[in-house]
Write a sequence for this structure.
């Protein structure tokens, strides 16, 4: 289901790990998370889940919660196939992404 969403790609020299950001268009933490990725040269894709139909948003949140066994808050980042980040705490993002 998640692969059918319309993500916006952002290019960067660091292509690995594959990063997907689920964000809200009005969220300051989401904006800071994407600015962090930009500053550190990561390629990623994102979607503002508050701009998609509510049924689709709820299904995406359900799939993320089921897949990663955690509550979904924004930003929610999938990192590679296994890791994830919830919220934006810069130290956690640096550690997970090896910055």
């Amino acid at each position: 289901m998640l692969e059918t969403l319309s993500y916006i790609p952002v290019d960067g020299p660091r292509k690995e790990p594959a990063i997907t950001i689920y964000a809200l268009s009005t969220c300051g933490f989401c904006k800071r998370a994407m600015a962090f990725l930009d500053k550190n040269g990561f390629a990623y894709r994102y979607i503002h889940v508050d701009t998609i139909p509510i049924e689709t948003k709820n299904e995406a949140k359900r799939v993320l919660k089921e897949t990663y066994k955690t509550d979904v808050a924004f930003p929610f980042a999938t990192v590679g196939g296994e890791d994830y980040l919830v919220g934006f705490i810069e130290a956690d993002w640096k550690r997970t992404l090896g910055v």
